[in-house]
Amino acid sequence: MPAPDRHHPVRIALSALCLLLVTSLPGLALACEKTVRWANDPPYDMRSEDGKIHGATADLLREVLKRMGCEAIFVELPWARGLRNLEKGTLDILPGALVTPEREAFAYFSQPINRSPNVLFVNRTVAKRFAFESLAHLSHSPFRLGIQIGVVYSSEYAALLKQTDFQKRTVAITERRSGWQMIKAGRLDGMIADEVTGLLELQQLGLAADVVRSPLVVSEEPSTAAFSRKSTDPQFVSRFNQTLAEVIDDGTYVRLVQPHMPCPVSAAALGCLQAAGGLADQALPAASEPSSSTLRSANTIISSLPDAGSADQP
Question: Domain check: are 229 and 97 in the same one?
């Protein structure tokens, strides 16, 4: 009896058809996974009791990527290390970033995902003494400004940081919460922070009477999501922008962001409806404490490194 012909055209056609069906079935094709930087930064990123990462930014990024057929893998990293990993291509997405010429060399940027002013917080006892009209005025004063490593608070700040007089007025800190304590203790005079994050943290730490929001708004530039040029391409960023627009237009943006914010949220404003400074007079809900356990789950990678602060929230 002759051996069967392995190359019979019908067999080849059937094999090709089976391969096509298998690779097209949901869940069997190669998965799209994107690593996303996060750090404890209420109300934007925080860990819930079940270990899952939530928050206004985390939930938004998860939804946009899900609609694109991708899974968000949240990686806890200090801000400065997140930037380095983005440059190296070992991190795909860093939300909350401001666009700078230096970063454009290694990152693509999305359309704005959030608008919240970066403002100057000061020790209450020196608030009247240091009534600055602009950030540049710090250069010719004895003011001691705490700055988080790698964070760009505004375009003006980035330019001032290159000037010797301004540099002398700065003190580098690795963790924002320790910065608040240094202000209370008189070791720093002030620090720049996202308005909502700052007010929430000060209330949670019991420092709202000691550290106050000054009238100086450092920046109202919108923040974006930065994408590594080494691990993503412009087409992916374009799809992200299109999907983000859909999430904003169909009401999902407000639905996801509102539960985390201590203010009425508007899709048109990409954040709080109130003008800068209005939140300072409100009794804000305390931000939830993060779990101290280093959980590792299917959608979360936990680093043991300390948090270097928030993203460049404008």
Answer: yes
Specify the length of the chain in residues.
314
Range of the domain at 87: 32-115+222-286+296-301
Question: What secondary structure letter does DSSP report for 28?
Answer: T
| Cis peptide bond N-terminal to 101, omega within 30 | no
**Residue 149 and residue 308 in contact, taking contact as beta carbons nearer than 8 Å:** yes
HSE toward the beta carbon, residue 91, CA cutoff 13 A = 26
Q: For strands 265-266 and 271-272, give the pairing.
A: antiparallel
pLDDT at 266 over 90: yes
Interatomic CA distance for residues 45 and 55, integer angstroms:
4
Question: pTM of this prediction?
Answer: 0.77
Number of neighbours of residue 291 by Cβ within 10 angstroms = 15
Q: How far apart are CA 29 and CA 22, in angstroms?
A: 8
Q: Are 303 and 311 in contact (CB under 8 A)?
A: no
Cα angle vertex 248, ends 267, 60, to 5°?
95
Give 169's pLDDT tier (boundaries 50, 70, 90).
Answer: very high
Residue pair 67/105 in contact by the 8 Å Cβ criterion = no
Beta-bridge partner residues of 33:
71
Convert the pLDDT of each residue in 269-289 to its tens digit: 999 986 434 554 444 443 333
Indicate the average pLDDT of the chain. Answer: 83
Domain boundary among 203, 219, 235: 219
CA 245 to chain centre: 18
